[in-house]
Specification:
By secondary structure, the chain is an alpha+beta fold. The protein has 3 helices and 5 strands. It has a 5-stranded mixed beta sheet with strand order 2-1-3-4-5, sandwiched between helices. Strand 1 and strand 2 form a beta hairpin. The longest helix has 17 residues.
Length: about 150
């Protein structure tokens, strides 16, 4: 006697939650301005993925994880899920530090390297990993390639 099983049918879709004001453009400074607006009300560390067009313009973003006051955990499938659904050309990953220091941790650097490798495999390039210090500056790993060299570990 065989048993009949059922499996759910899923539908993945992007749902607009709110709009984030920013100056159109493709520079790091414009992306940082956008991210500051995105993270402005953060009370814990949050991790976001910014979806980019083929010309590097911001199409939208998604906060994919919220953590504690001093850490946030994220995995690679979650980083790329929305990028695949949105059919964007590339992404910027970003998170906030609730301090005046944007210095990346070993885990930040390791995650960035893994995301770049996964993005290469999926043909969704990771253009940058930007860390926003809510009480100060920022670090864009694309402007600091020494973070991505093997000698950093």
């Amino acid at each position: 006697m065989s048993m009949e099983y059922v499996a759910p049918l899923y539908k993945l879709e992007l749902v607009r939650q709110r709009e984030i004001p920013f100056q159109s453009g493709t520079t790091t400074e414009q992306r940082v301005s956008y991210l500051r607006n995105l993270f402005e009300k953060s009370v814990v560390e949050e991790f976001a993925v910014v979806y980019l067009s083929s010309s590097g313009q911001i199409l939208g973003s998604e906060i994919i994880a919220a953590g504690s006051v001093d850490s946030v955990q994220v995995n690679l499938p979650k980083i790329f899920r929305g990028a695949i659904v949105s059919a964007c050309s590339s992404i910027v990953i970003a998170h906030c530090h609730l301090s005046d220091s944007a210095e990346p941790s070993f885990q930040d650097i390791s995650l960035t390297r893994s995301a770049i490798e996964m993005g290469s495999f999926l043909k969704i390039p990771v253009r940058d990993h930007i860390i926003i210090a809510t009480l100060g500056g920022y670090i864009a790993m694309s402007e600091n390639p020494h973070f991505l060299s093997e000698s950093t570990t």
